[in-house]
Specification:
This protein has 341 residues and is of the alpha+beta class. It has a single domain (27-334), classed as (Glycosyl)asparaginase (Glutamine Phosphoribosylpyrophosphate, subunit 1, domain 1), CATH 3.60.20. It is built from 11 helices and 13 strands. The chain has helices at residues 4-24, 49-60, 66-79, 123-133, 141-150, 161-171, 182-185, 255-260, 263-272, 277-291, 293-297, and strands spanning 41-45, 100-105, 111-117, 138-140, 202-207, 213-219, 240-243, 247-253, 301-307, 312-316, 322-327, 331-335, 338-339. A 9-stranded mixed β-sheet has the order 4-3-2-6-5-1-11-12-13. Strands 7-8-9-10 form a 4-stranded antiparallel β-sheet. Strand 2 and strand 3 (111-117) form a beta hairpin. Helix 9 packs across helix 10. It is globular and about 45 Å long. It starts with a helix and ends with a strand. Bound molecules: N-hydroxy-L-asparagine. Residues 199-201, 219, 221-222, 231-233, 252-255 line the site of N-hydroxy-L-asparagine (SD4). N-hydroxy-L-asparagine (SD4) binds next to strand 8.
């Protein structure tokens, strides 16, 4: 059983170990005095989840709130200009607009989201303010941008020269077809984990030292989408769901199929019935495949889940899905169920 007092005593050590790992990406945070506990813990989708988890860990290891951890964590890929699927530098829609989607949910069931928002680099922080400062859950398009500006966010151009070049390249054929696991195809294990894929999302779930669960999900959505298209990522219950009594789930991949099956809510409800996180994700994936077997052959959808005990698991339609995990014992990247480090 996790002992909070002992954790706080060892948190300074934990913090320094986390700092070491930031430099080296060495994954095992072992040491005689390190608390051997599942909590706190943070998990997130795809290889860029490693760097995002490291940032979230800085809050968790100090005994901070899971909500603060997930917001800080996903801001890392949102700010990464080499990442073309989250935040600034995300690939645009077919008309050249970078439109961002994000949502956040806390341990009390509070949630906030923005969808199709342009010109604001950190949609997750705007989503949090929708949750905390308005009576609403979701703001879209110009209204979301206007709200962000009122809250003091800077309006900026999100389309970078690199993304613009890729868009012009795409315009030559203008064919819309989501690429399966595009992110892992460009993932180079010899460099710091990152992503240059044409679509993917960071979904993050954390449990803090108090045992409270929060989640965040942020994306630029499917590259070359129709202007105005919104995927699963900002939709509570689809791209993200947290129930502090049970656990949390998040998704990545072709959002339309996740929305059709209310994927993350389904995963959490299956865990409530006693499914393990992995089995719950597997059942949700199976439902997508059962309903549309032909479509499922050509797309990727992955779910990632954690339960109240800090047990986690994932399942995806196609091979190649990965997620990152960080707790006091380790940082790891799990690809197809196998530890990368
Ligand atoms: C969406 N689920 O907009 C997101 C995109 C994604 O891998 O995760 N792609 O549908």
């Amino acid at each position: 059983m996790y002992n909070r007092r002992k954790f706080i005593k060892s948190s300074a050590l934990g913090a320094s170990l986390a700092a070491i790992s930031t430099q080296s990406f060495a994954k095992v945070l072992t040491g005689a005095d390190v608390e051997r506990s599942a909590l706190p813990v943070v998990i997130s989708t795809w290889p860029f989840g490693v760097a995002a988890n490291e940032e979230a860990w800085k809050t968790l290891v100090k005994g901070g709130r899971a909500l603060d951890a997930v917001e800080a964590g996903v801001k890392i890929p949102e700010a990464d200009l080499k990442n073309h699927s989250v935040g600034k530098a995300g690939y645009p829609d077919r008309d050249g607009h970078v439109t961002l989607d994000a949502c956040i949910m806390d341990e009390q069931g509070n949630c906030g989201a923005v969808a199709g928002m342009e010109y604001i680099a950190h949609p997750i922080s705007v989503a949090r303010l929708v949750m905390e400062k308005t009576p609403h859950v979701l703001l879209v398009g110009d209204g979301a941008t206007q709200f962000a500006v009122e809250q003091g966010f800077k309006k900026e151009k999100l389309l970078t020269p690199e993304s613009e070049k890729a868009w012009h390249e795409w315009l030559k054929t203008a064919r819309y077809k989501p690429e399966i696991n595009s992110e892992t195809k460009t993932y180079d294990p010899n460099t710091a984990p990152g992503s240059k894929g044409n679509h993917d999302t960071i979904g993050m779930l954390a449990i803090d030292t108090k045992g409270n669960i929060s989640g965040a999900c942020t994306t630029s959505g499917m590259a070359w989408k129709i202007h105005g298209r919104v995927g699963d990522s900002p939709i509570i219950g689809a791209g993200l769901y947290v129930d502090n009594e049970v656990g949390g789930a998040t998704s990545t991949g072709v959002g339309e199929e996740v929305i059709r099956n209310v994927g993350s809510f389904l995963v959490v409800e299956l865990m409530r019935q006693g499914y393990s996180p992995e089995d719950a994700c597997k059942e949700a994936v199976k439902r997508i495949i059962r309903k549309k077997p032909q479509t499922a052959k050509e797309i990727q959808v992955g779910f990632l889940a954690i339960n109240k005990k800090g047990e986690y698991g994932a399942y995806a339609i196609q091979k190649g899905f990965s997620f990152a995990v960080c707790n006091a014992q380790k940082q790891d990247l799990i690809i197809d169920g196998k530890s990368f480090y």
